[in-house]
Design brief:
The protein is mostly helical. The chain has 2 domains: 163 residues, 2-Layer Sandwich (Herpes Virus-1), CATH 3.30.40; 343 residues, Orthogonal Bundle (ADP-ribosylglycohydrolase fold). It contains 24 helices and 5 strands. Strands 2-1-3-4-5 form a 5-stranded antiparallel beta sheet. Helix 10 crosses helix 11, helix 12 crosses helix 13 and helix 20 runs antiparallel to helix 21.
């Protein structure tokens, strides 16, 4: 139970009666507090002594600078919400949200992300939304470590009591006598009280919540979007983002193009003849192969037109996504104020409370989910909806651990609602349909079309199979016919381009659009309204496909920046564009709105049109995890039968031994 700590005031005449009343009042207040804090329907709630979710939903290795300042009045991180009392801290991404008796933003955050454990900043209580109960910080070690850190931060001293499992209260600053502590026995990473004030993040540096990247009704725009990050690159290391190799020196990330260029320049300036020769050889190799080498692919394979267009699709998706992050959720007026008429500098765009959660130059959830589809194909040899669903759930909980993720960031509300259902991994299509029908068949967000470009590359010579694969994977989370048709259109257009369909003239481009549109007709006609023949959205679909320009799509319109047909229109814009890749993606990013998703689809379609060889080299080098992505891509190409399967070393060894 939770009790208020109070100093009893002596009643000289009735001490016994007072003590009894005080105990009764403590009990009643604790019951009221538990009920009112979390919305429990019961009149009494006791904290659970164990929680299975605490192992996976609490950020590891907390530092005092990761936590809010000692004052409990920490503002809700959702823009437009002015609640600053009794807020809750998500222990997965360390963002503060108001409670269910304010604007319910903590509940909404849990529903959209699956981050289920939070701490009340006012009283340092802990609640698990999955368990639907308070959890006891004295009996659950991961929770205790957070409590210890919050208590030190709030009161400037360690808690006056010990947990039930035992705990070493020495801080890192004090160290351990007689040698280093083991990881299991070590105290949490909390600095001494005198250090905490200097290390704590100021209120202004708290991140906004994970914005739904695929929801129609999105109302959150970072108010500080135009302000530079006063902490330099430190913002890249905040909760939920991918952590570069060195937290103290994020600029030393392996994928950081600036660091690579600086090192290369230093190498050229060395007086040793050997260094000069190596530099010349590197330059010659870059000149010959465009500086776009992928380990596992030969120059001949890179020059193959089919592989070139598939690589253009994948890396075009990633680049459009990464560049679009610069203006995601901004208003067009903010973009104009920040960048004027010039191009948006990538990867050195202006950081804000939203985009600084990602490592500099990184892609977001749009490309992450495309990679999940690719991994399903690598594993199963086909587009398997259940396997993809399981991977999606794991990604939501953990992200890509090998990239330093703490969980899937940028998750849309539609995906969150569907994936949290207990039956999702067993029958994702049924769950997806049920969620869609519960919305009045109105959910038509862009979270499916943002990820399915890869399905235009797999089995690209079999359009019937491309359509079937796209429908299957789209309906895993998005059942609406507009979402499915958007995915089919993009995948078919990409498949036609990969096949070698020419797109050099406007007439050739329109022929591709017409053929892709024809495959969508039966899907749009599958849902009827009031007994009328034909689909209710065919005209609307056609308007977005035939939009004269980006302005006609109204991408930053408050009525629904995450609408799937707006994103589809951006893909068509990429197909029609006569500009180079940079200019086209810059156009989309400057329209603001859900710019990363719009950029991802536009980049994928245009990448399929122009090929990997014509993607901007400096942008590709700025992707911090390109080497990791290269490995995924090579494995995908093997499964697709476009390059030979990897040789089995053990078989080679056996063959050599046999020859001997």
């Amino acid at each position: 139970m939770l009790f208020f700590s109070r100093e009893p005031q002596p009643f000289h005449l009735l001490p016994t009666l007072y003590n009894c009343f005080s105990l009764y009042l403590d009990f009643k207040l604790s019951v009221w507090f538990v009920k009112m804090s979390d919305g429990s329907q019961s009149g009494y709630a006791e904290a659970l002594n164990s929680c299975p979710h605490s192992k996976h939903h609490i950020k590891e290795d907390l530092r005092s600078k990761d936590l809010p300042q000692g004052d409990s009045k920490v503002a809700c991180s959702v823009d437009g919400c002015d609640v600053d009392k009794e807020n809750w801290l998500c222990l997965t991404c360390l963002l503060p949200f108001c409670g269910r008796f304010a604007q319910q933003h903590m509940v909404a955050h849990f529903e959209s992300t699956g981050h289920c454990i939070a701490s009340g900043l006012a009283d340092l209580s802990f609640w698990c939304y999955e368990c639907d109960s308070y959890i006891n910080h004295q009996t659950i070690e991961p929770v205790w470590k957070v409590y210890y850190a919050l208590h030190c931060q709030k009161f400037g001293e360690a808690p006056p009591f010990q947990p039930s499992f035992g705990f070493d209260r020495r801080s890192e600053a004090g160290g351990a006598e007689g040698g280093a502590e083991s990881k299991a026995d070590a105290a949490p990473s909390v600095h001494t009280p005198s250090d905490q004030a200097a290390q704590a993040l100021p209120n202004a540096e708290l991140n906004v919540n994970d914005q739904p990247s695929d929801e129609v009704d999105m109302d959150a725009v970072p108010p500080e979007a135009g302000q530079a990050d006063s902490g330099g690159q430190a913002g890249q290391l905040e909760a939920g983002g991918r952590v570069p190799p060195s937290e103290d020196h994020p600029e030393a990330s392996a994928g950081n193009a600036e660091a690579q260029q600086e090192a290369k320049q230093e190498g050229k300036q060395e007086g040793k003849q050997e260094g000069k020769q190596e530099g010349k050889q590197e330059e010659a190799q870059e000149e010959a192969h465009g500086g776009l080498e992928i380990e596992g692919l030969s120059a001949e394979q890179l020059a193959d037109p089919v592989i070139d267009k598939i690589l253009g699709t994948i890396y075009g998706n990633a680049l459009g996504d990464a560049v679009g992050l610069s203006t995601e959720f901004l208003a067009k007026s903010d973009v104009l104020r920040l960048y004027g008429d010039g191009p948006i500098p990538f990867p050195d765009f202006v950081p804000n409370r939203h985009n600084r959660r990602w490592t500099k130059g990184d892609w977001t959830d749009d490309t992450d989910q495309m990679i999940l589809i690719m991994q399903t194909i690598i594993s199963k040899g086909k587009a398997d909806e259940r396997d993809f669903g399981r991977r999606l759930v794991r990604w939501i909980d953990h992200g890509f651990k090998e990239l330093g993720d703490l969980g899937g960031m940028g998750l849309g509300m539609t995906v969150g609602r569907v994936c949290k259902d207990a039956n999702f991994t067993k029958d994702p299509h049924s769950v997806s349909r049920r969620v869609w029908e519960a919305s009045g068949k109105q959910l038509a967000a862009n979270g499916a079309v943002m990820r399915t470009a890869i399905l235009g590359c797999f089995q690209h010579n079999q359009l019937q199979q491309v359509v079937a694969n796209s429908e299957k994977i789209a309906r895993v989370t998005h059942f609406d016919e507009r979402c499915v048709a958007s995915c089919v259109f993009v995948a078919v257009a990409i498949a036609l381009l990969v096949q070698g369909r020419p797109a050099d003239t406007q007439q050739q481009v329109e022929a591709i659009i017409q053929e892709a549109n024809a495959w969508c007709g039966p899907i749009l006609a599958s849902e009827q309204e009031d007994g009328k023949e034909g689909g209710r959205y065919r005209d609307e679909f056609a308007r977005h496909v035939s939009a004269a320009d980006l302005a006609a799509l109204r991408l930053a319109d408050d009525s629904g920046i995450g609408y799937t047909l707006k994103c589809l229109g951006c893909g068509v814009y990429g197909l029609r564009s006569s500009k180079d890749f940079k200019g086209t993606i810059d156009d989309v990013a400057k329209e603001a709105g859900d710019a990363d998703t719009n950029g991802a689809v536009c980049g994928a379609v245009m990448g399929a049109k122009i090929g990997y060889s014509r993607l901007p080299r400096d942008w590709l080098q700025a992707l911090p995890h390109k080497t990791w992505l290269d490995k995924q891509v090579v494995a995908f190409l093997r499964v697709a039968g476009l390059i030979p399967a990897a040789k089995d070393p053990s078989l080679l060894n056996r063959l050599k031994n046999w020859i001997k």
